[in-house]
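Reopening this one. Same input as before:
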Amino acid sequence: MTGRIRIGILEDQQVFRESLVTLFQGAGMDVVAQGRDVEGFLIQVLEAKPNVVVVDIRLESPDSHEVGDGVKVVEALREQLPRTRALVLSSFRELPVMERCFKAGAAGFLRKLTVTSAELVTAVEQVARGEWVVPADFMRPVQAAAHAERPATPVDRLTLREREVLGLVASGADNMRISARLGITERTVKAHVSNLYRKLGVQNRVEMAMMAYQTGLSNPADTPHHP
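Same output, byte for byte:
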């Protein structure tokens, strides 16, 4: 994308939200929506149409005991503003939570307790470029479990080239980058991606990436490829 990144922030803790506003504005981004509850934030976002929204998924209210669910924002964006990409910033670290966010349409997931300011800014930039952000500490247990004895999966029936393309899709690469990495045309990449949709039975590239992670597909950097 070109120009300044337009960003929205859904965060229930006011001091932390204000810190995020300062951080992103200092990084040359425009904060065009911010709030602490799902309904009010969605109204802002639908009007402002930011490039990226940073979403907390547990939203406590000072006025009641009810807890809001930020994943609803992720789902709403997927349906109503598909060009606005969601980056979840949460204190949760459980794999099922991350999987739920990605299935809802999130483009990335970061942990509040470990991410640095620089890493958060970089993650927003990656998401704005169309990439995905998946923390390594979520990958390790999934990959370890995948090496245990398990039934065959659709990934096991892919060709070597299809596995290479899948690995690069899982890393967040677009068709142009995959083409350059593997030394093939974009038309050929599109054909491989179409085959992956059909063979894996997925609806989008995020589901494709999650299937790659769940089956322990090698990191694209370690995957051999041929000219």
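So the earlier flakiness isn't reproducible anymore. For the record, Strands lie at 6-10, 30-35, 52-55, 58-60, 67-69, 85-90, 108-111.
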